[in-house]
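A further point concerns the way the authors explain their paired sequence and structure data. Nothing conveys this as quickly as seeing an actual entry. An entry of this sort, consisting of the sequence and the corresponding backbone structure tokens, reads as follows:
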Amino acid sequence: MNRVFYRLLTFGSLATLAVSCAKDELVSPQIDTVVQSSDAVATRDSNLAMGNPSGAVASTTQYTNYLLVKPQFTMSYHRDRAIPNWVSWHLSSAWLGSTPRQDNFAPDNALPSGWYKATSSSYSGSGFDRGHNCPSADRTGSVADNTATFLMSNMMPQAPNNNQRTWAGLENYCRTLADAGNELYIICGSYGRGGTGSNGYATTVAGGNITVPARCWKVVVVLPNGASDASRVSTSTRVIAIDTPNDNSLNTSWATYRTTVNAIEQATGYDLLSAVNSTVQSTIEARVDAGPTN
């Protein structure tokens, strides 16, 4: 009787183990698949986790590529253009709250002494908006966070219809992705000289002190909330890249201007997403996004 009992017990244990192994094989992740817990907590992570696109440094000798680091964003600033080359920031629901828009545009006194500092009125009458690089609505967790986005170092002269329609559409979409449980790494900037605002074409504003860019670009890396973000970027990671003319008559849909990261790198000379594995970069930087737009 005992011998039969032990045989049955052994057989049952082996059957259970076999079923368990079969289940493990069914859920084994595939290469390049990001496996995330559905309850991953959104955090505030490094604004420069995807890399420093231009190798900017905080030295006044590098006045065309000056590194300016703030808790809310990191940028490369160009003294002679008086606008950023690029601004990089992290976006997740951890950065979002109920703080209202402060609208307290102000010069950035963190810029080196003796450099021209744009003021709240520098763009007045120019026909161009004070266009945020890092948007106000991406930093609503506190008054300090929102106030930082209104520093004039974070602005570029942007055609009103570009800023308020096309650009705003992508900004709003990015926040819906963050609200859905994703975290985003966003890098944006401008290049070239000369844009068309509501008063027509111009190359500078503020008496020649601030350059009007010809093009405005943005790159967005979308990941599910998690940790070790640069290492989680895979060949299947969604990357949105747009490059728009700084023109008041452009299309209202940001999807019209989707391009590749490679194309933006070629236009700017930057090495975007440099912290990502080089093999992965070669795939995701050559691909034009075809995902949803709202």
